[in-house]
Amino acid sequence: xxxxxxxxxxxxxxxxxxxxxxxxxxxxxxxxxxxxxxxxxxxxxxxxxxxxxxxxxxxxxxxxxxxxxxxxxxxxxxxxxxxxxxxxxxxxxxxxxxxxxxxxxxxxxxxxxxxxxxxxxxxxxxxxxxxxxxxxxxxxxxxxxxxxxxxxxxxxxxxxxxxxxxxxxxxxxxxxxxxxxxxxxxxxxxxxxxxxxxxxxxxxxxxxxxxxxxxxxxxxxxxxxxxxxxxxxxxxxxxxxxxxxxxxxxxxxxxxxxxxxxxxxxxxxxxxxxxxxxxxxxxxxxxxxxxxxxxxxxxxxxxxxxxxxxxxxxxxxxxxxxxxxxxxxxxxxxxxxxxxxxxxxxxxxxxxxxxxxxxxxxxxxxxxxxxxxxxxxxxxxxxxxxxxxxxxxxxxxxxxxxxxxxxxxxxxxxxxxxxxx
Length: 421
Known about the structure:
The chain is an alpha/beta fold and 421 residues long.
């Protein structure tokens, strides 16, 4: 149901009109006399591209010659990646498209701009404050982005785990990709990677992703509650008056920063819980939780009902064949494999990224990659469980007190009836 307008909405509309009347011919005058406003941002596609750095330690191909992983090499449009003698070299011919970052299962390629958590936060800022947010690339937009537009070097730079978290938390996010825009692009694999990542994320989240293909369909409308919040905050800053106290509905709205902070807190709490429960192996090795896995686990923790939609690859051990040689443990880039004192191999599914390197290096062929749903990835939240327990106890106490009161009232009524007789 549409919200009813009130005094604040009228004041906001009036203030917008006044701002527009302050300099109604400014843009026309600048165009006629050739004046350029240097304070305004200028469109430069290079600002949205970044050459990735490489961490060879988790790289599958660097860890073992038996690894068949060549994802980064296969996806690079200019053959700028070389892997030799346990080292990765990114050549100067790199186009900074970022596809190697998204394709690497172990996050061995590092690009601060394309880190899963940073991409999520950028989309969260746009989607929380606006009616619709868009994710697009430099070739598609070709202009300075507006507040609700998140520009990447290539649309294929977002992983399936990131899309899954975005789709689940923000149904108002769409991809802007004009028809045939990828046809002449040198990042040939970008569109295919986008399609595969979104298809998987849609299956996991149980909802579809919006797609815009026409520039005229892009809108930039702030949500009404955030427009009100910004207006009230501006009054508070300029006058020092706590106007928000007069409008409880406005004061109750969480800011964009608060929502992102809450998400970061959930991710940190999740990592802390995992570290306490299973963060180290029996050999005292600290397990590695990739950012993509962090986003997936935090989303499943908030929405455990989606676990049955999520399909992951996890190694399964045939203990009759296993000789406990430890090759899989040494090869695992995230230390999800562990040799227990009982003489068996254990896999920690919450950390396992399904790369399959353990199965590739196993000389006894004791490991097989199998598909499972995400039920094993749902991490219990101790705090949520504690609150649920307290709520259940309070409900039981209320029911007991209610029954006792009813019993007392019935007894009093019986006494009154007997007295009346």
